[in-house]
Amino acid sequence: MIEPHAPAPPGAPAPWGEGALGQARLPVRPGTGRFLVLVGVFVCAACGLVYELELVALASYLIGDSVTQASIVLSVMVFAMGIGSLAAKRLRCRAAAGFGALEAALALVGGCSAMALYAVFAWGGGGPGGPRCLLVVFSLAIGLLIGAEVPLLMELIQRIRRQDAGGAVADLFAADYVGALVGGLAFPFLLLPWFGQLTGALLTGAVNAVAGGALALGLFRRDLSRRGRRLLLVTNVLVLALLAAAALLVDDFERAARQAMYGGQVRVALQTGAQEVVLTGGVRGRPLALFLDGRLRASSRDERRYHEALVLPALSGGPHARVLVLGGGDGLAAREALRHPGVRRVDVVEPDPALVRLARSDRALAALNGRAFADPRVRVRTADAFGWLRQTRRTYDVVIADLPEPGDTSSTKLYAQEFYGLARRVLAPDGRLVVHAGPVASAPRAYWTVETTIRAAGLRTAPYRVAGRAPEPEHAHATGGDWGFVLAARRRPALTLDPGGPRPRTLTRAALGEDARAVERTRLRGLPVSTLVHPRYGG
């Protein structure tokens, strides 16, 4: 229990920031004051968790590998909270002023953290080093400030009405945890879809500043000197003004950052419920490029080479009337499948309906995909590929996994043994599965882990690759080198091109065989299988 302060000698001034006998001089009844402190705890806890989630979400988008980014943020922040709690002991004698200043600093740092991370990523060359260092700095700073809140709030609530330390801690933590629940739910369901990451962080900072300022300047204003009140008021007004100015400029900031990241040809930029979608070029002879979550997904310069290599070998050497495309919301894989005269049905399973709508409505993208989604043979299912495979009872002659590379933590379940077991279940007896497994040259371990995992699911494999175009200067996020694929079936599939099928524009049977032999020379043996509970792909 915190001991009460000794009374001041007769005629001596009360200690700075305190009333006589250590009792807070409140403008309201003690019970009301105690309730208002707990409301402040609730609001500040909600804001603190939003800052934490915002750092994890933005770092996962900018850097990738969400597990690593979450681990960095959580571990650094929890460590810093402990240090902040220890450091706050020195401020207990000036608890009201210290808490007000603390919340103003937290509002500014937390509110501006998203813009700072985005700026470093956009103008810092696109590498992960700068954003990751800044992520650690912000996690440390926010953790220090959040950790310092509890000792000061404990002091303030005890000065309203003394109670045993256990009861005070229980009340504070109850308000803190409920606030964290509200903040954790508000971030994905309110702030992110309605305001976006940048504006949502700025709005949270404003709420944090108002809550902290109201508690210090309203409830405990009599504990502050006139100079202290004036200084704290000016500080909060400046913080709110900076956050408001940033909110007014956030649209211009985002446009400038996107131009720095994608070049000056951004035509479409939208944040869907699943990802950020950006289209550049596609007009006046400029090449079209599609970016998903900051990574180049398709470019009109060389996408045909990728999609022909993905689709045509799988449609050769066997039946191909029923085709399933997992992913492929841009319609480009469906376009290649529809070129084959024997295809009667193409089911596309895409988790992001906004991407499909864009592929239908955007003139340049629709022209690139040959208006595949207008073809009556195509049916689109909005669903997660893993969940959809578990539920469907259909069988297919060809399954095309046109999915993000396995190095992205969020997609590792789509490269797990369980996933390939589900894909094997929907294959017809002579059906074939083709998987985009990432680059062979730059990520051979990930590529051969995919191949090993497919074999563990009971399928025979034929690995192959095709060379990709070197990245364009304006597309810093593009990856050059090659594209690696794995063709699989219950019996070893023949890697060939159907002479009765569509004529490839970028592939030849001889080059395909030569590339397959080159891939085989890079084989890594003895790799462990990737499963849902033990993923083997790293960022």
TrEMBL record:
Annotated ranges, domain PABS: 247-490
Active-site residues per Swiss-Prot or TrEMBL entry: D402 (proton acceptor)
PROSITE patterns tied to this protein: PABS_1, PABS_2
Keywords from the UniProt entry: Cell membrane, Membrane, Polyamine biosynthesis, Spermidine biosynthesis, Transferase, Transmembrane, Transmembrane helix
Chain segments annotated as transmembrane: 35-63, 69-88, 100-123, 135-157, 169-192, 198-219, 231-250
One term of GO molecular function: spermidine synthase activity
InterPro entries referenced in this protein's UniProt entry, alphabetically: MFS_trans_sf, PABS, PABS_CS, SAM-dependent_MTases_sf, Spermi_synthase
Annotated spermidine binding sites: H307, D330
Broad EC category: transferase
Topology in membrane: Multi-pass membrane protein
The reaction(s) this protein catalyses: S-adenosyl 3-(methylsulfanyl)propylamine + putrescine = S-methyl-5'-thioadenosine + spermidine + H(+)
UniProt-annotated location(s): Cell membrane
Pathway assigned to this chain's UniProt record: Amine and polyamine biosynthesis; spermidine biosynthesis; spermidine from putrescine: step 1/1
Subunit structure: Homodimer or homotetramer.
PANTHER family for this protein: THERMOSPERMINE SYNTHASE ACAULIS5
Biological function: Catalyzes the irreversible transfer of a propylamine group from the amino donor S-adenosylmethioninamine (decarboxy-AdoMet) to putrescine (1,4-diaminobutane) to yield spermidine.
Family: Belongs to the spermidine/spermine synthase family.
HAMAP family referenced in this protein's UniProt entry, alphabetically: Spermidine_synth
Record's protein name: Polyamine aminopropyltransferase
Organism encoding this protein: Streptomyces macrolidinus
Originating gene: speE
